[in-house]
């Protein structure tokens, strides 16, 4: 009888850490005016559990979050931030005066056809114009150019992931793959809906996985050999040799992990149970935000929620 094992649920990943920001003491004079805070409709949208919960399997955002203009992390700002400069005056008050320009932000009602919801999101006028030209919010979020990815921000990146995982988009891609005769159709182990358990329990799928792992292992070994040759030529030490440092000699450990382990000896379960669905967090009554806030004492707290005593690791 095959051993029944269960893979542990993924709770944390680089993505969840990216959407966790340290809590800073509130300032009486923020770097941007209070009127740019979202209204009640935007707070209600950004406080929805399906938007505040971060999927650990979501790829991390390739760009950094806004640290000097944190308001942009909770809207579609298109990379807009505060501009600083001078106001040059003529006449009696001739001279230069420091001033700032704030982005033109409006709380717009945007409908996502893929998600089937209408959201009130703080959006700049330039991004709203781009959304209209693209033909809707979904098409704007699914843009593939690097400039589009960079201007999405944390909120846009999470909305993009939700749109790409929706049933309507997956069905559209499935029909496109079938029309082009590509792999990944319904019932195939290459399908995006298939799980690791289905691929591992299939004989052909397991052989293909091990073959790809072996190729990747060989590439890592080749890169390791190149790196060790470079270090040997520049620093003058061989793998497993000794190097003198300020009158002391210490042994440099070689990168023998690739020699000890091999993908063919990897112990994976013969059968993997389906993971239980993770319960959604209750709706936040007060506050808004798409990121978790870490208290200075190490506790985890969501915007508008009570502090949890459990410390983060």
Automatic annotation (TrEMBL):
Stretches assigned to coiled coil: none
GO cellular component: mitochondrial large ribosomal subunit
Entry keywords, A to Z: Ribonucleoprotein, Ribosomal protein
Superkingdom in the source lineage: Eukaryota
Keyword Ribosomal protein among UniProt keywords: yes
Entries under InterPro entries matching the protein: Ribosomal_bL28, Ribosomal_bL28/bL31-like_sf, Ribosomal_bL28_sf
GO terms for MF: structural constituent of ribosome
Record-stated family: Belongs to the bacterial ribosomal protein bL28 family.
PANTHER family: 39S RIBOSOMAL PROTEIN L28, MITOCHONDRIAL, LARGE RIBOSOMAL SUBUNIT PROTEIN BL28M
Official protein name in the record: Uncharacterized protein
Organism: Knufia fluminis
């Amino acid at each position: 009888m095959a051993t029944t094992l269960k893979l542990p649920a993924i709770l944390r990943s680089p993505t969840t850490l990216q959407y966790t920001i340290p809590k800073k003491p509130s300032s009486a004079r923020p770097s941007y005016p209070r009127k740019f805070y979202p209204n009640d409709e935007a707070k209600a949208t950004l406080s929805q559990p399906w938007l505040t919960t971060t999927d650990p399997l979501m790829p991390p955002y390739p760009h950094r979050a806004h640290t000097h203009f944190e308001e942009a992390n909770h809207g579609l700002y298109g990379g807009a931030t505060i501009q600083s400069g001078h106001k040059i005056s003529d006449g009696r008050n001739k001279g230069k005066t420091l001033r700032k320009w704030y982005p033109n932000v409006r709380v717009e009602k945007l409908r996502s056809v893929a998600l089937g919801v209408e959201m009130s999101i703080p959006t700049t006028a330039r991004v709203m114009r781009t959304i209209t030209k693209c033909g809707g919010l979904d098409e704007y979020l699914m843009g593939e150019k690097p400039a589009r990815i960079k201007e999405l921000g944390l909120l846009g990146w999470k909305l993009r992931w939700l749109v790409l995982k929706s049933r309507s988009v997956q069905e559209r891609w499935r029909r496109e793959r079938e029309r082009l005769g590509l792999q990944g159709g319904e019932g195939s182990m290459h399908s995006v809906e298939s799980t690791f358990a289905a691929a591992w329990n299939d004989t052909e799928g397991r052989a293909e996985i091990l073959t790809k792992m072996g190729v990747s292992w060989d590439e890592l070994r080749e890169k390791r050999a190149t790196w060790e040759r470079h270090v040997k030529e520049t620093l003058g030490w061989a793998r497993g040799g000794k190097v003198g440092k300020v009158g002391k000699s210490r042994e440099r450990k070689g990168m023998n992990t690739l020699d000890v382990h091999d993908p063919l000896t990897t112990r994976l379960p013969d059968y993997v149970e389906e993971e239980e669905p993770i319960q959604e967090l209750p709706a936040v009554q007060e506050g808004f935000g798409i990121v978790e806030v870490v208290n200075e004492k190490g506790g985890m707290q969501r915007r508008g929620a009570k502090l949890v005593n459990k410390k983060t690791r």
